[in-house]
Amino acid sequence: MEFVMQDPVLVVGLGGAGCKLAINVKSRLACDCLLISHDPRDLNDESSKILINTSPILNPSAYLIRGISMGARGSVTERMEPYSTIVIIANLAGKSGAALAPIVSQIGKELGKNVLSFGIMPFKFEKDRIFFSGVSLKRLKANSDCTVIVDNDALLESNLDLTPESCNIIANSALLQVISTLRNSSLPLETNILSTSKDIADVELSLRDSIKMLYEDASPNSIKSALLYVVGGNKVPVGVLNSMVNAISGIFGDDSTRVSLSITTGERSKVVLLTSIEGETRFDKYDPLGFIPKQSVLDWDEPDSSLKIDLDLEQLE
Where do the domains of the chain lie, and which CATH numbers do they carry? Predict the structure, then answer.
């Protein structure tokens, strides 16, 4: 089974990075857009928007943002109701994205929509964000028909000379490349990992770096299918394209692994690899208790959150 986009489509951007990417995607897919964040600066666009008002707290925790967002469930539900496909883009390394992703995806699931989610994971050195992002990803996957994970940390580990900002730019570009082709392609109904490389003139070297990035997140025997996007592939010799597909098929080694090729135009040649994964990834270890099945967890139904309650209590002597 594969995820196929159905009109009408709504792209939902969560948090700063999610909102920026959603605005970009809106024009590429010719669809509507909804921006949700606790920071008004993320909502400076003409698109439909919902502010999660955490005022007067200047630096709210992710748990508080999630708790306050419960009051906006009605507004989110109303905006999502007319659409068949909901595409959620969330930066799970940010407070807003990680806080809102479980809530928004849960609403989409309850409405019976086709939910496709993109989760951008934090760098490993952002240790204060690892646990919360892992828990949010687990819930996002449970609520989505198809989830694509973008791991900035794997890109950085494969290219130690890159800065965090460069990693973000490369990963976001790869994500936009995949989303731009969704109207003409389909995705496996499983967890998918997006891997790519920095700008390299040689597409075969780009493929090597993409596979190296993939191996940071999952083992080769867990890969069930691979979709190879060759940006600028119209300028690449057919023999080279054929050898790349054969190389991937040989590396994964399983006869049941399906490899597909998508060629897109571009000024520079580059490889973006989208692979469907069955089994564990390193993100499952972000939550130390993630191995416990949800049916054995008493409080799984509602994600952890906190509420701001003003109590006017006199001091007792």
Answer: 1-144 (3.40.50.1440)
Q: Is the peptide bond before 8 cis (omega within 30 degrees of 0)?
A: yes
Nearest to 87 by CA among 28, 154, 132: 28
Structure tokens at 135: 């828990």
Distance of alpha carbon 306 from alpha carbon 304, whole angstroms: 7
Radius of gyration of the chain (CA): 20
Reported as a pLDDT band with limits 50, 70 and 90, residue 83 is very high
This prediction has a pTM of 0.87
Gap between the Cα atoms of 281 and 98, Å rounded: 19
Residue 169: what are its φ and ψ, rounded to 5°?
-65, -45
In the numeric block, the tokens 């994500």 are attached to 175
Helix count (H) and strand count (E) of the chain? Answer: 9, 12
227-251 per-position pLDDT tens digit: 888 877 667 788 888 888 787 777 7
- Yes or no: say if 22 and 12 are a contact pair by the CB < 8 Å rule: yes
